[in-house]
Amino acid sequence: MLEKRVLSRVLEEAMKKGGDFAEIYVEEKTVSNIFYEDDKIEKINSGREKGAGIRVIKDGSTAYVYTNDLSTENLCEAASLANHAAESGQTFSSPEIKLNCKSIDNEIKIGQKSEKVSFADKIERIISANSTARNYSEKIRQVTIVLGDVHKAIQIANSDGELVEDERARVRMIVNAVAAEDNIVQTGYESAGEIGGWELLSRVSLDELAANASGLAVKMLSAPPAPAGRMPVVMSAEAGGTLVHEACGHGLEADLVQKGLSVYKGQMGQKVAASGVTIIDDATIERKFGSFRFDDEGIPGQKTVLIENGRLCGYLYDRLTAQKDNTNSTGNGRRQSYQHKPIPRMTNTFIAPGKEDPSEIIKSTPQGLLVKKMGGGQVNTTNGDFVFDVQEAYIIEDGEVKHPVRGATLTGNGPEVLKNIDRMGKDLGFGIGTCGKDGQGVPVSDAQPTIRIKQLTVGGTMMSNGPSIKRIRRK
Amino acid sequence: MNEDFLKSAGIIALEAGIRRGVMTEVYLLSSCQLNIEVADSKVETLIEAKERGMGIRIINDGKLGFAYTCDLSAEAILEAVNDAYNITSYTTFDKYNQLPVGPYEYEVMQLYDQKIKETTVEEKIDMARQMESAALAADSRISIIERAGYEDTEYISVIMNTNGLYASGQGNFSGMYIYLVAEENGDAQTGFAMSLKKWIKDLEPGAVGREAAKKAVRSLNARTIKSANLTCIMEPYVVTQFLGILAKMVDAETVQKGKSLFAGKIGQAVASDKITLIDDSTWPDGAGSFPFDGEGVPAQRNLVIENGILKTFLYDTYTAAKGGVSSTGNAQRGSFRSLPEAGPSNFIILPGSNTLESLISDISKGFYITDVMGMHTTNPISGDFSVGAAGIMIENGYLAYPVRGVTIAGNLIDLLQDIDAVGSDLKFYGSKGAPAIRLKNLCIGGE
Predict the structure, then answer these.
(1) Which one of A221, A240, A265 terminates a domain?
(2) Inter-chain residue contact B121 with A84, CB threshold 8 Å
(3) What ipTM does the predicted assembly reach?
(4) How distant is the Cα of A415 from the closest Cα of chain B, in angstroms?
(5) Where are the domains of chain B?
(6) Domain B3-216 falls under CATH 3.30.2290.10
(7) Tens of pLDDT along A69-94?
(8) Nearest CA distance, B84 vs chain A (angstrom)
(9) Strand bridging mode A229-235 / A279-282
(10) Edge-to-edge order in the sheet of strand A429-437
């Protein structure tokens, strides 16, 4: 990591042309990934990375320069390139920047750091999970297991004199099982991940993930294609929050709102969802995949209520968008790495639980689709249209869960769906993912209780002859 | 940033590998990027990036190890070699883990446009402004320019291995892109256009702006339709989205792992005889053109599907050894941060002779598909897809009215067989190129 005086000097250089704000983000990172497939270690990747991104803002314009040469000389050169933001051409004698280290008491514990757990250890667990997945059924044809971890040390310093130093770690494991029978191929996918170290392995069983992935793939082999058309849809809590993330979350990111690219623009204080629907983004939930102490602009992570009892009451802000709206950042300025400028992003986003017993919701649904597991999704934030794929779904008839169906996709419109939520359970289930926006991926989680949507379009494949299944990797 | 510096860093790693008696390969990349985005004629974001790094692949008695480092000091390089070497004690023996054997002769390609370097930042900003104003002037319903950008990249890559291979190359390219919104009667629709060129003189800012405007405006006031089976035309952009999935299905790794429906189908008809699909890293001015692939194997043109018949898969050195064939020069490397993998370079469906008008003119009722959502959910193992779509209804040979909120579903194999005409309008989106195609019958899921 860099010395304080180097950071100050770079910032002073960056402010020389009269910028409004300058910042340097320094990152040192180690990553490791193990891919297991075909009953063998397919590959192990290990990498070391370090670099810095320097940002200068002037009248809302941003110049961002990044480099992985951290010599003082090169950083100062990068800082003077970033001066492009201030096009006046004048040189100012910028005041000396004194940096003060910020601290908060939201400690995130990193138990077993990645370098403390040997490859041999992880591989032993993987081999066991691989056998579990394959022994589940002879119909299992392929099993892929991935264990990955990231460990970062970061420094963020800015021209306001703030300095944040932090250590971050996250771990993730994925099991993908492929089952085949009579020309039908189905996949099952399970994942777990959190902020912290490999203590995850002591709480989440990799074997259990493997058995579940195989179980799902095999179950879907005999499932008929999903029906098509508009129908009531019950989404169980364990389906995770792809819906809230896509149908609502992206549209509440302040950069999209300010550019007029969100269906939720200009609707502050208005009713945008059914009564009883409360939507929250919270970076402070313990261990969740989207949690952090400080965001990537050095602002403490916080809890932000976005929709309260159906009314829109907040957007997700970073520094730049907050300044435009004359408000404070909500601590949602995030970036993938030093190679990216921060932008407003979600953290852990969820629909707050209601009061009902989830089983009652199913019982009182005469006919519809029960979604137990969501896949990936995509949204057009401008008009709110979305499409998701469903990994595991069942037919509901007369309030009872009947046979599984495969190949369902859900298409709809975000605001319309939020208004159409008519039942809410008291449970809450989380899913993890990597959320992509403007070419940057950041870890997020999302959640919802069991909910019922009065009407949603299920785009199935009843009309075509071929079978249908989905990949479930979150995009 | 120069070849000599990269070469000397690479030699440090190769020598460390030789000292340990293992096969070693280094891939070094040094790149410099500029990206400018304007909003309301003002520069909103300017990004300059300088990056370099090295990926080290070690094969120790058939066992593979990989590590990368951005720090090219001798000390960091030796640590990374050490990491890669240590990893080989955990990985499985595989006799197909091999490195290509050099030296090779490489084709000389014109990949460097001096003009990109000579054009000033101010001139590049101006190009982005021109694109933005052309889009706004194209139609009064264009309400928002989401992003209007110019970008260029310059890079040097060096590949060396202990089998006597040495490859180095330098290239650059420039591009523009625009995302915008058209609004009318409370309806908002997005439009986008992009253009990526080897030669900066070929960039046409005004044309890119107008194309995006046209795309957004034509989707306004779209309605949904009843579910039906219809004759469809896919725009080149949509076809290239499907090409992304096809690329996976013909990559030898996917095939050898039994994850492709094309496995075992070499020599068989997998598509309509109207379809000829090539992978060509020598395609003049192609975004994916380069004298050698990610392992230093020379560039070549591969016929993947010829008149509907599957001719070859795309191989890198590993998959070629496993399949008992020669590498097709298709080791792809996203960056120095990962191992090379078999994949496409310039992946192109060759155009036919039909104009778009003639493709549409004899359709009494059909659907012209302009956009698909959720393409990544397509399953390359089964070929099944069910994706969101938008487009324009075709009635009596003319484009009638815009449609959105429908899904198209089917199987990629059926779709390929169903192609009854190919357009003449070859268009590139990055390194994927395709003309419009017509499908006899596709299942459209609507109300």
Answers:
(1) A221
(2) yes
(3) 0.75
(4) 14
(5) 3-216, 222-447
(6) yes
(7) 899 999 999 998 888 666 655 666 66
(8) 8
(9) unpaired
(10) A311-312, A303-308, A279-282, A348-351, A440-448, A429-437
